Amino acid sequence: xxxxxxxxxxxxxxxxxxxxxxxxxxxxxxxxxxxxxxxxxxxxxxxxxxxxxxxxxxxxxxxxxxxxxxxxxxxxxxxxxxxxxxxxxxxxxx
Length: 94
What we know:
Elements: E1 12-14, E2 17-29, E3 33-44, E4 49-50, E5 54-63, E6 66-75, H1 78-92
Antiparallel strand pairs: 1-2, 2-3, 3-4, 3-5, 5-6
């Protein structure tokens, strides 16, 4: 668990292999409820390498001085990310 929002990461290692490699993150909101969007790559054993960029939005809640993940939404590819961006831009610009 993490006690500071800036320390939260989705890097994950299993049996000496970094399965999830965080490339970047943006903290969207801070406080008792915080939201972070991450850009990451996932290890693909069949390819023996990392796949394309993926994105995830995660909500964290601070309980007893530790941030705990409460929910997440995974964006699995660039095309899906672009559709989300276009929908949001359409709503914002209307």
